[in-house]
Each structure stands twice: as structure tokens, then as C-alpha cells.
Design goal:
In the C-terminal section; belongs to the phosphate acetyltransferase and butyryltransferase family. In the N-terminal section; belongs to the malic enzymes family. It is built from 31 helices and 21 strands. With 763 residues, it is α/β, with parallel strands linked by helices. The strands form four sheets. The protein has a six-stranded mixed sheet, sandwiched between helices. It has a six-stranded mixed sheet with strand order 18-17-19-16-15-20, sandwiched between helices. The protein has a five-stranded parallel sheet with strand order 13-12-11-14-21, with helices on both faces. The longest helix has 22 residues. Helices cover 45% and strands 12% of the residues. The relative contact order is 0.06. It folds into five domains: 122 residues, 3-Layer(aba) Sandwich (Rossmann fold), CATH 3.40.50.10380; 153 residues, Rossmann fold; 103 residues, NAD(P)-binding Rossmann-like Domain (Rossmann fold), CATH 3.40.50; 130 residues, Rossmann fold (3-Layer(aba) Sandwich), CATH 3.40.50; 144 residues, 3-Layer(aba) Sandwich (Rossmann fold).
């Protein structure tokens, strides 16, 4: 055999291994994510290339995690014998629940799922079936299997399989409610070793919950467990092995008797079994977990009306403190899969408990507050469990579980760099989050003073709190001091930052300085001394003058005023960058796929070809500042034909750009859908865009740009950041009317990055 033949075979072997090992592992896409358009691609994907990783795995079984999606694939398995509160409805009827569980795994932790419904009630036969299919999966989530079979099935499978496995109905509820118990006891100023607890229900979830509470320090002698026949006491007969563990030496027989002087009630039974009279018999500051769904053991509003000192959690999303298993299982499996754990042990469960409990005590991101249409969310009686849409869960819980698996010795793969692992987890939740995170991290490295006008507004105040607490910026509040303080007190915003009121006596010296600045700038442009004195008492002028005088590093204005009216004093006071004839604005559009940039969206109504050249160049510089290579499409409603007046203007701008900036990746006139599609671009091989889609779009006029981004903003299909002002020699940005807290935080972050860049340019 020739050396060339040997070399070709070696190269093919390596190519096949690279193909099957390449990211994204375990991704399930409607459109295949790997190359598949040529014969060579298919030979790598299937025969003969697929044989090479097959043999690698045969020789080294652990490499199945390298060459397949096993490490990111979980089976959700049920026989339909205990579905929700519906009971034994069979495997087919359970399928919607299992499919829904799979969706939660995917959207909350980026874990792929096969749901498997098994028509088998015999525990040993069920176990044999699961064991037989286990090699396909990185983990197994057992679901909706009735007790006592659920205990036996889980225990046997844990003994015989070496992958993460958990019966979520038992342990998921136990983990979330245990976190809630830790926090509610702290608020009630009670110790777990001292409390008396009543558990109503003695099924799989109730037993698992009580076992875990005992691991936290609850004493067995302080527990009264009830089933449908009453208190499980020493007089009862024919009890299951699990119930025998909770036999109490008491003469109490009914739930009502058990509730007397109890500190905590945990209901895992059925609705409306707890009466107001029972609740009144409980100890001071009682804790009630009424977790039956859809009807709690006692209605939330009824409980609140019965006792003002009660703290309550339910399984419902329309009341505070929802004990929702989605707070746990996606992230527990995420952490377990990422270290290739051989199981899910008690150490991992407890790590999840403490991670969830601790998260509820941290300041809540504004995005979470807004998701639930609330003004604020603070640790206390109405918030002692994190909300399901808190995107910090994936890092806090997954990392805690992964560490516990490593420390307890059941991890087959160690994580060396947890900071890097945290970023990988966040990357799973979307590219827009990654870009925002990158910008905020850069801002935190050197935070700047940013003055926020309209500081009387709740959204602006809340944004300032986030910016301050997260170290993104040093906020300065600009507005009427008395009203700002009243708003802070009203909304419970504790923020120790400067408040600047242009009309205050303590600003007299600044007003004198600023009057001279504006008089010097505008004395030959229609401003007399009287007007100058009047202007310096108005925030629209005071803010830009602060920036001009070096009393702040950046300025955020707008929110409650028309864009053009707010822009006027900025243009009068803040000069343009050298070489810039007209300023322009850009919107950043964060889609699920990647970020896009639209210009000019706010300022130039009908730009000339020369203006479009300037806008394109400023856009290139701005996009590059986000560590993204700009690929610029000059938009029109024609593709490289230039028949209309608008298209001719764009074509002229493109010609000028090609001549003046030959290294810019820019072309047009082109329609946006063509500029965003590789197949369409391949029809124009002469284009400087090549076949790689554009990410930056220069619109031919203000109307088309403004309408385009506002349609996207209105549809809420992508996050919008901006408008980002381009061409000023100092960092100023103008908020859109009624911007959200998140939009204010993001635009301020960009202002900090601008200030950093200006500072570096001066050095």
C-alpha cells in the first residue's frame, strides 16, 4: 500500500472522528447542524465514516460521551400509574405530561429528552425494560409512578445503573420544599430541630420530603404523618414499610388533632382538607405548605384571612411561593450530566436545596420582577422561593450539584475551571445573554459615572439600583430631589448615590459655571444671557452641561420626552467627533440566532449618499467595538439593479464605500431577506458579502429603519438595545419613550463602554 493511500486513510479516520466529536453534541435540530450537502459529508456521518467512532467506543466505552449525544440526553419514563392528581390513567394518557416535562428540560437547561411511556405495572418487568434501554441515555427521570412501587423501582434501578437517575415526584418536591422550609423558618425565627411538623399524605412525595427534612435536622419524634385514615400512630395496623418509619407514639388520630400547636404543615394530599379552625390551632407564625394541585389543602386567600401571621407556599403559580419542581430537576440533571455522575446521591440533593434557598436571599434581577408583573420582589414571607423564570438557577444549582458529585466521589469527569463552566451554562441559554454578559463584564472592569435623567421615574430608579448593585456603573440621579426621594421610599429602593437637582441651592456654583459654558457655545446662535440662565435650571440642558464640564462620564436622557426634543440640547452642547458631519443612531437587535444592528433609526430622515457612507462607517466602528466583525448590507427594495431613485442613492453610497474603504465588508443595494440568507447571497458571487449573511443593515431612510425595528420590538421576538448614538465626542444616549428597566440597564452599559473607550483614546 502506498504512503499516499495510508495518508488518505489516516486523514479520513481523523475526519470521521472530528465529525462525530464536533459540537453541538446532542443538539436536536429541525435542520441538521452538521455538514450534509456532499457525498463526503454523508460518508463521514454514516457509512463508512461512522464505523470509526463505533470501534473507538467498542475499545473504550467511556468515549460514547465524546462521539454521541448520550451525555446530553435524558429519558423521561412513566407507566402512567400516578399522573398528576388524575391517578392511574395509563401510559398513553400520561404522554402529554411526559412531553411537557421534556420541554421543561430543554428550555430551562438545554437537555434533550426522549419521553418513554411503558405499558407495564409489574415493578420487576418495568425495571428490566428500563435497564434494557438505559445505554441510550445519560440520565433517567422517573415520573408519575404510584407508591409503594415507586420506592422499589427507583431503589433497584439506582443499584443496577451507573447514570444519574431520580424519581422527580419524590425528590423534586422534596428538594424545592426543603429549600422553602429553610427560608421560611429563618423568617419565622424558628429552628428546624425545635419545630413540630404535620405531614398530610404518605405517598412517594411525602415520604421523600420528610426524609430530606430529617437530613436537614428535623427530629423524628416531632413529626406526625397522616394518610387517608388519619394519624399514623402506634395503634395502626397493616402499614407499608415506608409508613412504619413514621409511626408516632401518640393517641392523636385525626388531622385536626395533629394540627394543634404544630409549627409546620406540609400537605401532599388533596384539596380543602385543612379548615380555618385547624389553622387557628397551629403555633405562632405557622408555616403552611399546601401543595395539592390544582386545589391546595387550604385556599391561599382563606388562609391569609384566617391568620395574619401565616406563611404559605402552594403548588400554584398564581400565589406567592410556588413549590415548583422546575426549580430543581433541570439543573440537578444538568450538573449531574456535566460531570458524568454515576447517580444522584444525597449530597447532590442537599447541595441543590441550599443553592435554591440561598438564591432567594439575593437581589432579584429586574427581568424576573417584570416577568411576573411586579414592582419589586424581596426576601420575606411572600418570597422565600426563587421564581421559575429566574435564569440564575442554571448556574447556582447546576454548579452546586456538579461540585457535590465531585466531592462525594461519583463524578467520572471533573470540572477544572468553574468560572469557565459558569459561562458555558449561561451560553446554553442564548447568544443574546452572552453578548450582554460580555458587555456588562467589560463595564464592571472599570465602571464610570453615568448621569440618569428623569430619575423620578420608577424604571429609571430601578435601573440605577441594578447598575449600582451589580457594579456596572456609578449612577448619578438627575431630577427633582424631593420627588426622587419620595419615589425611592415608596418603592423601597435603598440607593446611596448622588442626586442632582438643577434648581437646588447647592447647585448654584455649578449653574454659574454651566451658564458660562452655554453662553460661550451659543452666544452667536440665538442664546442671550437671560436664556442661558434659564437653560441651566432645566435638566435637558443641565445633564449635557455636566458632561461637558467633566462632572459625569456619560449621560442617559429621554424616557418621558420626544426623542428629537431631548436630542436638541445635546447637539447644541456636546460636539461631534472629528470628521463627523452628522450624528446617527443604531439599534442592536438580539435575536436567538445572533445580534443584528440597524442604522439610522432615529435621526436622519432622508440621508444623502454621502450621509449613508458616514452612517455605514460609524456603524462599522460601533459594531466592531462589541468584538463582532461587521458585515454591512446597504438596504433597498431591489437587488443590484438600481432602477428607483432610492436604490440609485444606495448604489452611489456603495460605490463610494468600495473606493474609500476597500477593506470594509459592505455591499448593496440589496433586500434584507437576501442579505440574511446564504443561498440567496450565492446568486451574487461578485458581492463583497460573499455567502456569509450580513449582521449590520444601513437603511435608505429614517422611516424604513424606525418602522423595521419597532415592528421587532412590538412583536417581542428579540431584545432591542438602543438607540445607540454615534458620532458624538462624548457618551450620550437617548432612551426610547417608556423604556423598560432592562433596556435602561443595557443602554447604560453601552454608555459605560463608550466612556471607557473615550478615556483610552485620550491616553
Amino acid at each position: 500500500m502506498s504512503n499516499k493511500t495510508n495518508r488518505d486513510e489516516k486523514n479520513f479516520r481523523q475526519a470521521a472522528l472530528d465529525y462525530h466529536q464536533s459540537e453541538p453534541k446532542g443538539k436536536v435540530e429541525v435542520i441538521p447542524s452538521k455538514p450534509h450537502s456532499t457525498q463526503r459529508d454523508l460518508s463521514l456521518a454514516y457509512s463508512p465514516g461512522v464505523a470509526i467512532p463505533c470501534m473507538e467506543i467498542f475499545d473504550h466505552p467511556e468515549k460514547v460521551y465524546d462521539y454521541t449525544g448520550k451525555g446530553n440526553l435524558v429519558a423521561v419514563i412513566s407507566n402512567g400509574t400516578a399522573v398528576l392528581g388524575l391517578g392511574d390513567i395509563g401510559p398513553e394518557a400520561s404522554k402529554p405530561v411526559m412531553e411537557g416535562k421534556g420541554l421543561l428540560f430543554k428550555i430551562f437547561a438545554d437537555i434533550n429528552v426522549f419521553d418513554i411511556e411503558i405499558n407495564e405495572k409489574d415493578p420487576d418487568k418495568f425495571i428490566a425494560i428500563v435497564k434494557g434501554i438505559a445505554p441510550t441515555f445519560g440520565g433517567i427521570n422517573l415520573e408519575d409512578i404510584k407508591a409503594p412501587e415507586a420506592f422499589y423501582i427507583e431503589q433497584k434501578l439506582k443499584e443496577e445503573l451507573n447514570i444519574p437517575l431520580m424519581h422527580d415526584d419524590q425528590h423534586g418536591t422534596a428538594i424545592i420544599s426543603a429549600a422553602a422550609l429553610i427560608n421560611s423558618l429563618q423568617i419565622a425565627n424558628k429552628k428546624i430541630g425545635d419545630i413540630k411538623m404535620v405531614v398530610n399524605g404518605a405517598g412517594a412525595a411525602a415520604i421523600a420530603c420528610t426524609n430530606l427534612y430529617m437530613a436537614l435536622g428535623l427530629k423524628r419524634e416531632n413529626i406526625l404523618m397522616c394518610d387517608s385514615k388519619g394519624v399514623i400512630n402506634h395503634k395502626r395496623e397493616n402499614l407499608t414499610a415506608e409508613k412504619l418509619d413514621y409511626v408516632a407514639n401518640t393517641d392523636k388520630t385525626t388531622l385536626e388533632e395533629a394540627m394543634e400547636d404544630a409549627d409546620v404543615f406540609v400537605g401532599l394530599s388533596k384539596g380543602n382538607v385543612v379548615t380555618p379552625q385547624m389553622l387557628k390551632k397551629m403555633a405562632q407564625n405557622p408555616i403552611v405548605f399546601a401543595l395539592a394541585n390544582p386545589d391546595p389543602e387550604i385556599d391561599y386567600d382563606l388562609a391569609m384571612a384566617t391568620r395574619s401571621d401565616v406563611m404559605m407556599a402552594t403548588g400554584r403559580s398564581d400565589f406567592p411561593n410556588q413549590v415548583n419542581n422546575v426549580l430543581g430537576f433541570p439543573y440537578i440533571f444538568r450538573g449531574a450530566l456535566d460531570v458524568q455522575a454515576t447517580g444522584i446521591n444525597e449530597e447532590m440533593k442537599l447541595a441543590a436545596v441550599y443553592a435554591i434557598a440561598d438564591l432567594a436571599k439575593e437581589p432579584v434581577p429586574e427581568a424576573v420582577v417584570l416577568t411576573y408583573n411586579l414592582k419589586s420582589l424581596n426576601f420575606g414571607s411572600e418570597y422565600f422561593i426563587p421564581k421559575p423564570f429566574d435564569n440564575r438557577l442554571i448556574t447556582k444549582v447546576s454548579m452546586a450539584v456538579a461540585k457535590a458529585a465531585m466531592e462525594s466521589g461519583i463524578a467520572q469527569k471533573n470540572i477544572e475551571d468553574f468560572e469557565q463552566y459558569e459561562n458555558q451554562l449561561l451560553d446554553r441559554m442564548g447568544r443574546d445573554e452572552k453578548l450582554i454578559r460580555m458587555m456588562q463584564n467589560r463595564a464592571r472592569s472599570n465602571p464610570k459615572r453615568v448621569t440618569l435623567a428623569n430619575a423620578e421615574e420608577y424604571n429609571v430608579l430601578k435601573a440605577a439600583q441594578i447598575l449600582f448593585e451589580e457594579g456596572i456603573a456609578h449612577p448619578i440621579l438627575l431630577g427633582e430631589k424631593k420627588f426622587i426621594k419620595a419615589q425611592m421610599e415608596k418603592y423601597g429602593i435603598d440607593l446611596d448615590v448622588p442626586i442632582v437637582d438643577p434648581t437646588d441651592d447647592d447647585q448654584e456654583e455649578n449653574r454659574k459655571k454651566y451658564k458660562e459654558i452655554i453662553w460661550d457655545l451659543r452666544k452667536r446662535k440665538g442664546v442671550n444671557e437671560y436664556k442661558a440662565k434659564r437653560y441651566v435650571r432645566q435638566r435637558d440642558y443641565f445633564g449635557p452641561l455636566m458632561l461637558k464640564n467633566g462632572d459625569t462620564d456619560a449621560l442617559i436622557v429621554g424616557f418621558s420626552k420626544n426623542y428629537s426634543s431631548v436630542l436638541k440640547p445635546i447637539l447644541e452642547i456636546i460636539g461631534k467627533e472629528k470628521g463627523v458631519e452628522k450624528v446617527a443612531s443604531m439599534m442592536m437587535i438580539l435575536s436567538e440566532k445572533k445580534p443584528y444592528f440597524f442604522a439610522d433609526t432615529s435621526i436622519n430622515k432622508n440621508p444623502t449618499a454621502e450621509d449613508l457612507v458616514s452612517i455605514a462607517k460609524m456603524s462599522e466602528i460601533t459594531v466592531r467595538s462589541f468584538a463582532i466583525e461587521p458585515r454591512i448590507a446597504m438596504l433597498a427594495y431591489e437587488n443590484f439593479t438600481a432602477k428607483s431613485e432610492t436604490s440609485q442613492k444606495v448604489a452611489k453610497a456603495v460605490k463610494m464605500l468600495h473606493e474609500k474603504f476597500p477593506k470594509m465588508i459592505v455591499d448593496g443595494e440589496i433586500q434584507p431577506d437576501f442579505a440574511m440568507d446564504s443561498d440567496h447571497l450565492s446568486d451574487y458571487p461578485f458581492s463583497k458579502l460573499g455567502i456569509t449573511p450580513a449582521n449590520t443593515f444601513i437603511f435608505p431612510n429614517l422611516e424604513s429603519a424606525n418602522l423595521s425595528y419597532k415592528i421587532i420590538r412590538g412583536m417581542k421576538v428579540a431584545q432591542t438595545i438602543g438607540p445607540i448614538l454615534m458620532g458624538l465626542n462624548q457618551p450620550v444616549h437617548v432612551l426610547q419613550m417608556r423604556s423598560s428597566v432592562e433596556e435602561i440597564v443595557n443602554l447604560t452599559t453601552i454608555a459605560v463602554l463608550d466612556a471607557q473607550k473615550k478615556e483610552s483614546a485620550k491616553k
